[in-house]
TrEMBL record:
Residues 50-119 form the DUF6852 domain. It comes from the Bacteria. This is DUF5606 domain-containing protein. Pfam families: DUF5606, DUF6852.
């Protein structure tokens, strides 16, 4: 699901991929539903391609969002409730204990929480692709 959700540099919010044209994408803002073109020169990245730095391997954004959903029981994160950056980083450490504190900036953490809130508000709560059982196993059942 996250493969079709896009972040576009210079444009606030998240966008859903609607269609592809010649040298452009047609995207729809999750918050407003307004459709706009994203051209080849725009820096567009799929949320499915983003990972968070950790001290071991990088963790896909979908896994992090799934952990946030579990910790908050599917509700939005109130980013403004954190009094300072230290509190925000401490909360993120509860979600992703091994995140690399030198390479993951506070603004990145805020962006992850804001993206999570936008996705939940848009009704998107499946952050990790469900792997289907192989056909042989399904036949045995």
């Amino acid at each position: 699901m996250l493969k079709t959700i896009l972040a576009i540099a210079g444009k606030p919010g998240l966008f859903k991929l609607v269609s592809q044209g010649k040298n452009m994408l047609i995207v729809e803002a999750l918050a407003t539903g307004k459709r706009t073109p994203a051209y080849a020169h725009d820096k567009v990245i799929s949320l499915g391609d983003i990972a968070i730095y950790t001290t071991e391997d990088d963790v896909p954004l979908g896994d992090v969002l799934e952990t946030i959903k579990t910790k908050n029981e599917g509700k939005e994160v109130d980013v403004k409730s954190f009094s300072d950056d230290h509190e925000l980083r401490k909360y993120f450490k509860e979600i992703l204990p091994g995140f690399d504190e030198d390479r993951v900036y506070t603004n990145d953490i805020k962006k992850v929480f804001n993206w999570y809130n936008l996705l939940v508000a848009a009704g998107i709560t499946d952050f990790v692709e469900k792997e289907e059982a192989p056909a042989e196993e399904q036949a045995e059942e």
